[in-house]
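re the bet — no i am not wrong, look at it urself. input seq straight from the record:
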Amino acid sequence: MGQKFIENTYRKVNELKALIMERKSKALIEIDGGVNQQNAKPLLDAGADALVAGNFVFSIIEPKRNNSAIKIRLMVNSYSLIVCKTDNY
């Protein structure tokens, strides 16, 4: 089981994105922990650039194993979420 999502993350992401924009930084915001189908779009709307949703994805999908990387592509409204898992970890 993965981490529980912390609700005030939306506010923190929004504030951090504003700071990044204000300072013209190239920093990216990645959210890792508790990401799922309910909060993915709101997180992206708040300013997140990348979401880590491995536990959520692999808990609902049983991918077929082969020698190459397993790639699962999910659509979260108009956003594309790509999760890759390889045996090299």
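see?? Residues 54 and 83 are 7 Å apart (CA to CA). told u. also The radius of gyration is 15 Å. so pay up
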